[in-house]
Each structure stands twice: as C-alpha cells, then as structure tokens.
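Morning F.,

Quick status update on the modeling queue. The single chain you submitted on Monday has been processed. Sequence for confirmation:
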Amino acid sequence: MPTVHHDPYQHHFARLHGRAMYEEEQRLQKARKVVAVIADHAGDRVDELHTLDLGCSTGIITGHISRAFRITIGVDIDVEALKYAAANRPGQVETTWFLASDAMAVPFGNNAFDVVICAHVYEHVPDARRMVAEIHRVLKPGGICFFSAGNRLSFMEPHYRVPFLSILPKAAAHRVMKSLGKGDHYYEKHLSYWGLKRLLSSFEIIDYTRRVIDDPERFAATDVCPPGSRRQRLASLVAKMAYGLIPTYIFLLKKAPS
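Structure tokens below.
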C-alpha cells in the first residue's frame, strides 16, 4: 500500500474545535488565569510589558489580556481564526495586533518581548524544541513565558475526550481516531512531566501548578478547581503523592538575565 503523508501542521484547528475556541466565557476564564499568574510574578509592572501570544487562535484570550499589558501581539497559523480575531478585537484595540506566523519561526528580533504566552500550544507544533528555542530567542533577558502544558500521562485526552489516547503509540492513536470518526490522524504530541522538564531545560522553571491548586480564587481557577470541593482535594492529593500524573501543569519560564 502507498504511504500516506500528512501535513505536519494542524490547519483550521479553530474550525475543528469550534466550541472550545469560540466559547467566549470559557476563553475569558483562561485569560484571567494567565494574567493572574503573570501579575503574581511581575507585580505592578504588568502594564509596562510587551507581550507575544503564541497560538492565539480566535484572539479572545489575546484581546482580554491586552487590557493588562502595554502591547500585545497574537500569532497563529490558522488564518481563518485570525480573521475572526481581527474583526472582534476587544481590549486595547490600538495596542493589539494579530499576525499569521509559524510559532517555530516568529518574525521578530532577538530580545523583543518581556512576556511570551504559550498556553497549551507545545503539543500542536511539529517541533516543540524549535518553538521553545524561538520563545527563548525573542524574550528579553529576565523575561518570562507563561507556559501551560497538558500531560501525556492523563486518563482523558483533552482535545477529543478519548481515554488514554495521548498514551497510545501514534499508529494506534491514528486508528482510534478513524474508528471514532474524529479524523484520520492524531497530531498532538504530548509529553510527560519529565519530558516537559527536558524540553524547557534552557529556562528557570517557576512551577505555579501547586499554587493554583491551593489558591484557585487568587489565580482565577475556580472553574476547574472550586475552593473546598472534592475536585480541589483530589488535585491536592495527586500533587502531593503523584505529581507526574497531574493533567495540566502551569509554569513560568524565566530567561536568565544577561
């Protein structure tokens, strides 16, 4: 049988996952988490920061966070989603721009940004190491990257809601996708906690995961971890007893000062 070659890029991601990418309140809640974590680290300097949002998709998160930062630029390869973003720009319109760009080769100079946001993007790019190298390159010395990341060792795969999908060998994952009518190719390339640590080894990793679990109100995470709930107690137990099984990690990556 002839070999079938797949485009390594996930084009039209927002169209395929429309409910997740266009649902306003859900995206705004994610944006609040991003700003809360960055503000916790940066303090009252937030409104001075120049920010790059990698994988901005429909721009709902980008538009919200732009209210907090001086300049915000969102980039994505999904042109359809970018058109929506440009036509529906909330926030500080005069200081917010959207640009079609590959996250593995962004068109900005070295040391250009104080902050990069990379929220659940690493598993979608063909080469996560190249993307991380670009993040490091465009960050100013001492700059930070908000990096949220799904864990390969998760019971429920978050994009397709199929148990154990991210753990399967790729050939098996492709077959599962086809059999369930969810597509003919499983693009996502999740890493374990230890794989993420290796991927991000060029940065100082400031791990906010436990902080968010312990204080979800402070970090706008009450939607996924309601205070005092069974979910919060379970998350806290997993964080203490089996940290490598947490479904999502929240890191700030700090580039070394010059």
